[in-house]
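Its record is quoted verbatim for completeness.
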Amino acid sequence: MTTNTHTIAPTAPAGTTTARATTATPADAISETGTGRLDLAKAAPKVFRALVGFDAAAREGLDPALVELIQIRASHLNHCAYCLHMHTNDARKAGESEDRLHMVAVWREARHFFTPKEQAALALTEAVTRVADAGVPDAVYAEAAAHFDEAELAHVLALIFAINTWNRVALSTAKVAGTDERR
């Protein structure tokens, strides 16, 4: 299983450089991103570490391919190019096929690319990501519960919560797609 946790490191747009201060002040936490936006890892390191830990705990015991499919689908729905780029690359490195990666956004029309368990996870990902639209329908939850035992379902839900949080961090702090700087 991959232990790649979703980490959003500070980045600067291509062609720019940033000076690193020896001690970070609130101004440093904003200016070092190169976007005029906050660097969450520097501004709130305990919060950032807690999120990294939550993400790592969420994926424990889950199939790495399923983890990436969930992260990719939520990132599509949230329009998070930074996370979408990161997780499609992670999926490729883990051996995911180009065909399946191209079909995640339209998985309902291309069900034959995904197992029933993956389809249930993708449907749950959509419902939880769009929870404000219609809640999580009982049928969607029941289908996921039919494919995952209680512990797995808890981890799938936690992973969906985590990627939605990462998407919001990346979008709020103007992360630039293609600048994945995980260590």
